[in-house]
């Protein structure tokens, strides 16, 4: 009979530096002991070698993991969009969600492990066994979270909060710390779950300079809670081409056919990667941050096309095709200042995608997390909270100043990109196209 549950939490935090005994970034598989409790053997691939060119200085399996994250991220985004009105904002981090469930995979077996591998598309990585996923995650993390530019921060942090009355599997702890930097902090869930909830929320708040608070809602922990996994990602970047504060003006944003709201629209005219796709009824604009390898891509539907129509047919293959065709050209750009914050439970969305057993007290198989492998363990819920602010300087989790001005230059040979209606956005590592964040800005006035 099951008598325990594990709560998985996903948030964004801006700070953590992890010291480990081995340099994971230069290590080879033979240097690390990454044998999880159970191993899932993927079916043999019959489609032969990939014809897609792997970016320079990139491990082919890391490249495949990045693509798996992209496919999962767009699938999850579609699930979120189905459950929200077209006028609702959406924002989340696919890589954050994938990383947290990769840590969960460490202790999973049987059908639970198979579902994790399938839903997060880890089984598309051309290796026979699931244990290599963690090594490739380590290599991907080394690539993503290296210092990009002195003005850019892209930081990931992880933490395990376990009930102090239980003994957690040593291998599970070692791999979590070695690969993900996730140390275990004991808490008293059994006797005082509310105090544990406040402790975790305060830790999150302190790490985000009070920008993200109350991630765990009241009642989310109870005496049966055993483990809370916190995966975090934080990004702060300055535009390579900043918007001029004197070029900000007030205008209407068309939330829908019947509703507008007033926004501060930023303006600049310079060279960006851009492309209009008439058959797909979208414009794409890519704006780089300083350092060039992190960019924001905005997907703007034509005026006669709804954002929902674009979302319905969007997948990674189409997105990559669009990105490959973009060219640098002079563009007259108008983008609103905005903030988006999105907090939600992942449980039902992931169950709809096929991750059912993990959340079932009767079917979950997570014997590798505790020393007592017979201890009934399952995931009770998974929470995700994300925040983004875009202004003249760039993107960050901070307050913005309001500046209204007029006066713009005119170039008759430039392309025009006016984001005065709902659009999709992606923040990505551009070399291997890892989706760090994705979302929809449908109502920039709803902050």
TrEMBL record:
This is Antithrombin-III. Residues 1-21 form the signal peptide. Belongs to the serpin family. Most important serine protease inhibitor in plasma that regulates the blood coagulation cascade. AT-III inhibits thrombin, matriptase-3/TMPRSS7, as well as factors IXa, Xa and XIa. Its inhibitory activity is greatly enhanced in the presence of heparin. One of its GO terms (biological process) is blood coagulation. Pfam families: Serpin (PF00079). It is found in: Secreted, Extracellular space. PROSITE patterns: SERPIN. It comes from Pundamilia nyererei. GO terms for cellular component: extracellular space. Forms protease inhibiting heterodimer with TMPRSS7. One of its GO terms (molecular function) is heparin binding. Keywords: Blood coagulation, Disulfide bond, Glycoprotein, Hemostasis, Heparin-binding, Phosphoprotein, Protease inhibitor, Secreted, Serine protease inhibitor, Signal. The keyword Nuclease does not apply. Residues 74-444 form the Serpin domain.
